[in-house]
Amino acid sequence: MTGAPDVEAVWRIESARIVAALTRFTGDFELAEDAAQEAVAEALVSWPLDSPANPAGWLMAAARRRAIDAIRRRNVLRDRYALLAADLAADRPVDGEGDPDKIDDDVLALMFISCHPVLAPEARVALALRVVGGLSSEEIARAFLVPVPTVQARITRGKKTIAAAGVPFELPPAGERRERLGGVLSVLYVIFTEGSTATSGDRLLRPGVAYEAIRLARTLAALQPNEPEVHGLLALCELTAARFPARTGPDGSPVLLDEQDRRLWDISAIRRGLAALAKASTRGLGPYGLQAAIAAVHASAPSVEETDWDQIVLLYEALGRVAPSPVVELNRAVAVAMASGPAEALALVDELVASDRLSGSHLIPTVRGELLARLGRRSEARAELELAARLCTNQAERSVLLRKAAKLS
C-alpha cells in the first residue's frame, strides 16, 4: 500500500468496520477478510485514476461486490446472496447508522471472535490485529519480534480454525466473555501502542489507530463494567493519549517529554483517565492498572524535574512482579536514572544486555546511550545512539536519535 497513501489511510480507519459488516452479512469470516483485501487491491488501481468522493463507502461497496461474486462462485448460501444483492441494488449502507459505541458493536464482536478459545493465544492476537486493527503482517511481526511468515501462517490457520469450528458472528454470552477477555485486552493494548508510537513509517503517531483502540476500550468497559483491568486499560490509553498534542511539533517531528509544552496536554482526557483508574483500583491494580498509575504520575506533574520518580520506580517494581518483561525492566531503569542517577540505572541496563532478551531492539541502545551521555562518556554514548538509529524502523524516532548522536561528536 506504500504507493497509494490515500488507500492506506482509509483502510487503517475503516478496515475493521468493513470486515465486521461483511462477516455479519455473509456469515463467513475468511470470505469477509479476503473480499476486503481484494477491494483494497482494486482501490490501488482505481483511485489514482478516479478518486472517489466517499472512499470508505467505495471500499465497502467494492468489498461487498467481491463477497457476492465469491458466494455465487461457490453456489452456496443462496438466501444470503439474495439479501446482499438486494442491499447492493438499493445502495443501502451495510454497516448501519446510529450510536458508534452501542454495546452490540460489530467491531467488538469481531474482536471477541478473533479471540475465541479455539485459537492458540498467539493466533488470537495476530488475527485480531490484522482484521480489527488493520495492521500489516510486517507490523505485527515487528511488534512481537517474530518472522513475517510466522505471522502470516498464524493468521491463515486462525481463519481456517474459526471457519471449521463454525464460530457465530455475535458477542459471546456473558459467561464466555471473561474467558476471552485477556486476549481482547492484549489486542487492544497492542493496537493502541502501535497508534501511540508507530513501529515504522515516517510518523511518530498514528492517532486514528490509537483512538479506535480507545473507542473499543470504552465499549468494552460499558460491556464489562465490573472488570477492573478493562478500566485499567482504558485509563492507560486515555492518560497516554492526553499527551498526543504535545508529542509532535508542527512538522510532525517528535518532541521529547522534557521539552513538551504541558499546557497542550488534553485535560479532559486526563480527567477521563483518572476516573477510569479509580474504577480499576477497586480490587487492586493489575498490569494495565499499574501502567495507568505510572501515566497518572506523569499527568499530575508540572515538569519532568518535579515528577515523583521514586513513586514511578515503585510502580515499575510492582509491575515487574505481576507482569515481568525486559521492557518493564528497561523502563524501571529509566525511572531509576531520574530518581537516583545514571550510574545505578546503567548497571540495570547492562544486566539486560547480558541477558540478551531485547536483542535486535533499538530500545536498549537508546537508553544506554542516554545514560552514557549523562555520565560524560560521549564517544560510547554516540556509538550506542548510532546503533539505536540503525535498528529503529520509525523514521521520526530515527531522526531524533541521529540528532542526539551528532551533538556528541
Would you mind describing this structure in some detail?
Residues 180-280 form the DUF6596 domain. This protein has 409 residues and is mostly helical. 70% of the residues lie in helices and 0% in strands. The protein has 20 helices and no strands. It is globular, with a radius of gyration of 23 Å. The model is unreliable at 1-5 and 93-104 (pLDDT under 50).
Strand segment count: 0
- What's the helix count? 20
Helix content: over 70%
The rough form would be described as globular
- Mean pLDDT, to the nearest integer, reads 86
What separation lies between the terminal Cα atoms?
38 Å
Please describe the topology of this protein.
Elements: H1 5-26, H2 29-46, H3 55-74, H4 78-90, H5 106-114, H6 121-131, H7 137-144, H8 148-165, H9 174-196, H10 207-223, H11 228-241, H12 244-247, H13 267-280, H14 287-300, H15 309-322, H16 326-340, H17 342-355, H18 363-374, H19 378-391, H20 395-407
Helix pairs in contact: 1-2, 1-3, 1-5, 2-3, 3-4, 5-6, 6-8, 6-9, 7-8, 9-10, 9-11, 10-11, 11-13, 11-14, 13-14, 14-15, 15-16, 16-17, 16-18, 17-18, 18-19, 19-20
Features:
409 residues; globular; disordered N terminus
Task: Summarize the structure in short.
The chain has 20 helices and no strands. With 409 residues, it is mainly alpha-helical.
